[in-house]
Design brief:
Elements: E1 5-9, E2 12-20, H1 28-41, E3 51-54, E4 67-74, E5 84-89, E6 92-102, H2 106-120, E7 122-124, E8 128-132, E9 137-139, E10 142-155
Antiparallel strand pairs: 1-6, 2-4, 2-5, 3-4, 3-8, 6-10, 7-10, 8-10, 9-10
């Protein structure tokens, strides 16, 4: 894991599919192709990386009720449909951490961010974002992730 850095993230438009349920059971293999198909049908040029938004802390809320958005950034206004929604994401300051490793160690990355926030006088200020730099791969029966975690922050 890399060092935690503070970064200002520019505003963006995000086309997404909402998922309610355990984060470990999000059907990325269904949602991401659906998003790119929607973008093509709507003549919208998407960004190259998908961006996932996790609204709830599964340690504080029943994991079956956790809300996530599986999304792609888009560069123009576009209309939602029955499944794909569009949201404007405001500019924000985030604590950011690059993670590459097995999904079983992912919680450690979030724990590291939480400790850093406590030690540096920050509070969580909205849902976390995960920018996927590579498609997840299976290795030795475990999902290997390559993401940049971005947690919106504010001074205490």
């Amino acid at each position: 894991m890399d060092k935690i850095k503070i970064k200002k993230v520019k505003p963006m438009k995000l086309a997404y599919i909402e998922h309610i349920g355990e984060y470990s059971k999000v059907p990325y293999d269904r949602y991401v192709p659906r998003l790119f198909k929607w973008a093509k049908e709507n003549k919208v040029r998407p960004g190259f990386k998908n961006i996932n938004v996790f609204h709830d802390d599964p340690e504080e809320k029943d994991s079956l009720d956790c809300k996530s958005w599986i999304g792609i950034p888009i560069n123009v206004d576009a209309n939602s449909d029955d499944e794909v929604k569009v949201e404007k994401i405001p500019e924000m300051e985030v604590a950011t951490l690059k993670f590459k490793g097995p999904s079983s160690e992912y919680k450690n990355a979030y724990d590291k961010i939480k400790r850093w926030m406590d030690e540096n006088g920050y509070d969580w200020d909205g849902p976390s974002f995960e920018v996927c730099s590579k498609k997840p791969k299976m290795a030795n029966g475990e999902m290997i992730l390559s993401t940049t975690i971005q947690v919106p922050i504010k001074k205490k």
